Amino acid sequence: MELCIYPTKIGMAIAAAQQAASLLNRAILARGSANLILATGLSQFEMLSHLVTLDVDWAKVTAFHLDEYIGLPIAHPASFRRYLQERFAEKVPSLRKFHYVNGAASDPHAECQRLGRLIGGLLVDVACIGIGENGHLAFNDPPADFDTAEPYIVVDLDEACRRQQVGEGWFPDLDAVPRQAISMSIRQIMQSEAIVCTVPDVRKAPAVKQTVEAQVTNRVPATILQTHPHCWLFLDQPAASLLSGRS
Question: The CATH number of the domain where 51 resides is what?
Answer without folding.
Answer: 3.40.50.1360
